[in-house]
Amino acid sequence: MREAWQHFYGTAFWQRRRMLQLRMHPLCKFCAADGIVTPATHVDHVKPHKGNWNLFVLGELQSLCASCHNSRKQHEERIGFDIAVDADGWPTDPHHPANRHR
Ligand SMILES: [Zn+2]
């Protein structure tokens, strides 16, 4: 799926930030959590920036391997909403099924 903000990833800024992230965190974070050492090839925003340049530039990053990156992206695209919850444990995304009939 290509988004309108896809060009963010073609900027010199991103090339540099991505390179620095992989240099500081060369291993896949999700695999490491399972005790597996896998070289990271993808740099992912922990919180989806959804085209917000400030979040894209300043948002926290995580290094992932291709397999973890793809499964994460496919999961988000398949369910079509954000699974983040507020302090009460209620989903914050208005597209979440729990919020559709309120
Ligand atoms: Zn991984």
What do these coordinates show?
The chain is 41% helix and 8% strand. By secondary structure, the chain is mainly alpha-helical. The protein has one domain (6-99). The longest helix is centred in the C-terminal third of the chain and has 14 residues, at 66-79. The two termini are 30 Å apart. The structure holds zinc ion. The site of zinc ion has 8 residues, from α2 and α4.
What's a concise summary of this model?
By secondary structure, the protein is mainly alpha-helical.
Biggest sheet architecture: 2 strands, antiparallel
* Overall domain count: 1
Percent in helix: 40-55%
Mean pLDDT: 87
Please report the total strand number as a whole number.
2
Distance between the termini: 30 Å
Spans of at least 5 consecutive residues whose pLDDT stays below 50 are none
What structural category characterises the helix and strand content? mainly alpha
Q: How does the overall form come out from the CA principal axes?
A: globular
Rounded to an integer, what's the Rg over CA atoms? 15 Å
List the helices and strands in order: HHEHEHH
Instruction: Identify the strand order in the major beta sheet.
Output: 1-2
Give the helix tally: 5
Strand percentage lies at 5-15%
Features:
2 strands; 102 residues; two-stranded antiparallel sheet; mainly alpha; 5 helices; binds zinc ion
Please render the helix and strand layout as text.
Layout: H1 12-24, H2 29-33, E1 42-45, H3 53-58, E2 61-64, H4 66-79, H5 97-100
Antiparallel strand pairs: 1-2
The protein binds zinc ion.
Zinc ion is lined by residues 28, 30-31, 38, 64-65, 67-68.
